[in-house]
Write a structure and sequence with these properties.
The chain has eight helices and eleven strands. With 256 residues, the protein is α/β, with parallel strands linked by helices.
């Protein structure tokens, strides 16, 4: 895991909390003989542009498991309303970090190349506050109308205009070749912006849609959206964990 640049220190943070309404203890759920969080950590270890990887947790069992497989973890408050708030607290353990990637701890098939691209995008443009990613989705796909699937629309220069759980855009007129963009829950921030973000109160649109990235847009942030073909699924239920185990057995998702 080489240094990204002598001028930057890029930190990858994996938020991993124990409590989950649908799947308590999810980060330690075994998949193909390893805890879920270890799969994500191993993907991050393949990155070239991360200088440091840190698991931010609220539970000693997760912390001990991470340390057991050679990772670094830090305890954070169990009362954080969002993963971003948890990451901001974890920054106290990473004073050198200039840029931070919020890598979901329940996406064991995340593409290391996407993480590297997000890191490179942030360090190359000092005007950017945030960067994230989205993958194309056929407008006829049922997911385009699923409120559990977050959509994003962008300006012509690739910066986010809006995120929503509603169909976005609403195709009153057919636009050949125009996809729906499914937002992936991975974020990159400059340290200064992240520290400002968590100081702002939840915003009206954020509360309406339950999407914290809208707080950034409502406060005038610039968010670059990278297009990716990485459609790797996350894990929200034990059934999805079994599907991940099946996918890990395929050549497409296995790491060399």
């Amino acid at each position: 895991m080489p240094q990204s640049s002598p001028n930057f220190h890029v930190l990858g943070v994996l938020p991993a909390r124990w409590g989950s309404t649908r799947f308590p203890g999810k980060p330690l759920h075994p998949i193909a003989g390893k805890p879920l969080i270890q799969h994500v950590w191993e993907r991050c270890r393949r990155c070239s542009n991360l200088d440091e990887i840190l698991v931010a947790t609220d539970d000693e069992r997760i912390l001990k498991a991470v340390e057991g497989f050679g990772g670094k973890a830090v305890m954070t408050s169990p009362d954080h309303p969002t993963g971003t708030d948890r990451i901001a607290e974890a920054l106290k353990a990473a004073p050198l970090a200039t840029h931070i990637l919020n890598i979901q701890g329940d996406e064991p098939l995340i593409d290391p190349a996407l993480i590297d691209e997000l890191a490179a995008t942030m360090t190359a443009d000092p005007a950017l506050d945030m960067a994230t990613a989205a993958n194309p989705l056929d407008p006829a796909d049922p997911a385009a109308h699923d409120p559990n699937v977050v959509k994003v629309v962008t300006a012509l220069d690739g910066r986010a205009l809006y995120f929503s759980r509603s169909p976005l855009p609403f195709f009153r007129n057919a636009v050949p070749g125009q996809p729906v963009l499914r937002h992936k829950g991975i974020y990159a921030y400059s340290r200064g912006f992240l520290e400002r973000f968590v100081s702002w109160p939840p915003s009206p649109l954020e509360k309406a849609e339950s999407l914290e990235q809208l707080r950034a847009l409502e406060n005038g942030a610039s968010i670059k959206v990278l297009l990716t073909n990485d459609a790797s699924p996350g894990v929200d239920t034990p059934e999805q964990a079994r599907e991940i185990e099946r996918l890990l057995a395929t050549a497409h998702f296995s790491l060399p």
